[in-house]
Amino acid sequence: MTAPYFFGYGSLVNTATHGYGGAQPARLRGWRRAWVHTDLREVAFLSAVPCAASTIGGLIAEVPGADWAALDAREFAYERLPASDKVQHALPGSPEISVYAVAADKQNGATEQHPILLSYLDVVLQGYLQVFGEAGVQEFIATTDGWNAPLLDDRAAPRYPRHQHLSRAERALFDDLIDSTGARRISSAHD
Question: How far is 49 from 64, CA to CA, in rounded Å?
Fold first, then answer.
């Protein structure tokens, strides 16, 4: 029996944040990304949201022995949904593939009390840059909704537990792309 896979479209694209093997690029049809907040987390984060006219790039990786416990714990604010028929990939056969998404009735907008962490966004963008190159980072920006959410600049003291070191080139690229979205940065003084 083949192990199942997850489709990651945010921090899971950055393989430095997890140890799941068999990671490879894939595309999810019928979904977009959006910045959301739920009562289950202090800050805003990415969720997949249904959108018939959209396709997003991401990464699939194997969940050995179908042991979802650790990944479900990491993604505790999400529901794990079947997505096998929506994921385009290069794997042989038809493996089971799931995607994590926040239930629509549990989504709230990001606010200054519940902002996007820049340290989280950096991890996501770094993953897309490593897997898809600069064009993939630009596609990520274009296929993600909610850039009007406040962005807490926590780079000096990262609050995201899986934050990664950025090179100067990565930081400059990400800052330019983030600025192009019109996202409003706030300082930790607004926590």
Answer: 26
CA 168 to centroid of chain Cα atoms: 22
Please give the Cα distance from 16 to 99 (Å, whole number): 19
- DSSP letter for 127, please: H
- pTM as predicted: 0.92
CA dihedral 44, 167, 129, 69 (to 10 degrees): -50
Which residues of the chain form beta strands (DSSP E)? 5-8, 24-36, 45-62, 79-82, 87-88, 97-101, 116-117, 144-145, 150-152, 184-186
Q: What is the C-alpha separation between 116 and 151, in angstroms, rounded?
A: 5
Tell me the pLDDT tens digit for each residue of 126-180.
Answer: 999 999 999 999 999 999 999 988 999 999 999 999 999 999 999 999 999 999 9
Q: Is 79 exposed, middle or buried (0-12, 13-18, 19+ CB in 10 A)?
A: middle
Specify whether the CB–CB gap between 33 and 46 falls below 8 A: yes
Integer Cα distance of 41 and 106 in angstroms: 11
Q: Are 174 and 165 in contact (CB under 8 A)?
A: no
Please tell me what DSSP assigns to residue 149: S
Structure tokens at 25: 């690029």
Please, where are the H alpha helices in 7-117? 69-74
